[in-house]
Amino acid sequence: MKFLYTLICLSSLIACQTQVPTKTVDANQKNASDFTLSFGSCNNQEIPNELWQEIVKNNPDVWVWGGDVIYSDTYDMAFMKKNYAKQKADAAYQTFLKKVPVIGTWDDHDYGVNDGGIEYSKKNEVQKLFLDFMDADSTDVRRTREGVYYSKIYPVGTYSIKIIVLDTRYFRTGLTNDPSAKKRYLPNNYGEGSMLGEAQWNWLKQELDSSKADFNIIESSIQVLSYEHGFETWGNMPHEVVKLEKTIADSKAKGVIILSGDRHIAEISETNVPDLAYPLIDITSSGLTHSYTSYSGEANKYRISDVVAKKNFGLIKFDFKNHKALFELRGLNNKLYQTYTQQY
């Protein structure tokens, strides 16, 4: 037996619902990850879901949706509900759900409108449908507040991982269009606009400041570091990138890693942040059912890996004793496309 799971439910209902299994590593198991996180995005419910069986081959301890769980740009909530139900009923996904715990966030196409943000009038209705899809129970905090941001701690023996899931849709203000049409959007250089909104920013600061976890994973549906491509990215609001990096550095949280999706490609980006003791990595994985097959190159000064333009999913394998994280990008037949190791 590779791992032993123990679930301890406290007497209160809330504690029972938020407690997660503690993972114990078999000391005799060689080349085993202490904890394996799997993630990805851009999953069209009308296209065969071919990667779930490949992801399972890696024995992940959790799956983190990076958004675009379905493709359903609409104001028709009956149509939206039908599409969520279709994905939930997918045979391969159903099998996956029985083996791997699932958490995550939404992006624009499961939110309801391409590149949508705060202005989308049906966001409250879709939030309910999304949480239903995620099997969030009636006491889940996301049922009573705006936005789907969320966090969960995973104990691993005497260590732990904290996964912080952001919502880059519900509160995100408008982007700056490129009047030349050479790119879709331009960076807003005037310090205007918000990616997360005040309430979520305050929450994120508290989550990082209070974290005792050995690794802290931040899921952002859109890329944080790569910005030169001109599509959606945190780089469209440079002041928000600066704010995020400062929030991370000031918190002194250990092992912060960013996950992202949206782009229909996979790549690993890295930057050095003032007062942060380790490089900040943003690993992008998408798409699960379709990819940017016509990709011919684009600038990204933070890129440290080749771009993967085939269907893919991401993995992070954690080694707590040696304070390392192994990043992998894989695809059909569990083929390894990229790998990178970072010391923390």
Protein described:
This protein has helices spanning 13-18, 52-56, 77-89, 91-97, 108-111, 123-133, 198-209, 238-251, and strands at 3-6, 22-25, 35-40, 62-66, 102-105, 150-156, 159-165, 176-177, 185-186, 215-219, 256-260, 267-271, 280-284, 313-319, 324-330, 336-343. By secondary structure, it is α/β, with parallel strands linked by helices. The protein has a single domain (35-343), classed as Purple Acid Phosphatase, chain A, domain 2 (4-Layer Sandwich), CATH 3.60.21.70. A six-stranded mixed sheet has the order 5-4-3-14-15-16, with no helix packed on it. A six-stranded mixed sheet has the order 6-7-10-11-13-12, covered by helices on one side. A two-stranded antiparallel ribbon has the order 1-2. It is globular.
Distance, first to last CA = 29 Å
Low-confidence parts, pLDDT < 50 over ≥5 residues? 1-22, 24-31
Q: Which term fits the overall shape?
A: globular
Number of helices: 8
Q: Biggest sheet: strands side by side, in what order?
A: 5-4-3-14-15-16
Q: Give me the strand/helix succession.
A: EHEEHEHHEHHEEEEHEHEEEEEE
Structural class comes to: alpha/beta
> How many discrete structural domains?
1
Strand count, sense and barrel status of the largest sheet are: 6 strands, mixed
Task: Tell me which CATH architecture applies here.
Answer: 4-Layer Sandwich
In percent, how helical is the residue content? 10-25%
CATH level-3 fold name: Purple Acid Phosphatase, chain A, domain 2
Please give the CATH class: Alpha Beta
* Total number of beta strands: 16
Q: What Rg do the Cα atoms give?
A: 19 Å
CATH superfamily: Alkaline phosphatase D (PhoD)
Tell me the fraction of residues in β-strands, as a range: 15-25%
Query: What is the arithmetic mean of pLDDT?
Result: 92
